[in-house]
Amino acid sequence: MQLTRFTDLGLRVVMRLAVAEEGVRPGSREIAEELSVSYTHAAKVITRLGELGVVDARRGRSGGLAITELGRTATVGWLARRLEGEAEVVECDGAIPCPLRSGCRLRSALRRAQQAFFESLDTLTIEDLTRNPTGTVLLALPRIGGADTQISATNGE
Ligand code: SF4
């Protein structure tokens, strides 16, 4: 099974925010640059992470992004399910619906596999993902702008 780029980016963002120093709130542009993704994609993901309550995004001079307690303690499976949405592994009911869909054993097997995939991610929290060696890699990312970056718009930009 493959995660969407949206979900992978969401997990990257929360991992990066989980290692931010106390009181330091990076902006979404900084996060996008540090993670080598487009600002547009990062902003969309950060908006969704805010809706889910795992990221606190504030505007203004002392604004920026921070991971919430829920974000630290949420399981990777919980977050991945919400970022992925309800889509099945295979699109059986698309523009040209599959003729086997009324009684397909493959479809039910893929649903079980999808469920098992997410359940395997339920054993890890976001904080678990930031243990070494990942924590060291995250902390070594080149910091863009630093702690004094001016915050000017939505998503803690
Ligand atoms: S064969 Fe089964 S799983 Fe594949 S598209 Fe058709 S209904 Fe879906």
UniProtKB/TrEMBL annotation:
Necessary cofactors: [2Fe-2S] cluster
Claim: Nucleotidyltransferase is one of the keywords in the record: no
A Pfam family matched in the record: Rrf2
Keywords: DNA-binding
Listed InterPro entries: Tscrpt_reg_Rrf2, WH-like_DNA-bd_sf, WH_DNA-bd_sf
NCBIfam families for the chain: rrf2_super
Protein's name in the database: RrF2 family transcriptional regulator
Top-level taxonomy: Bacteria, Bacillati, Actinomycetota, Actinomycetes, Mycobacteriales
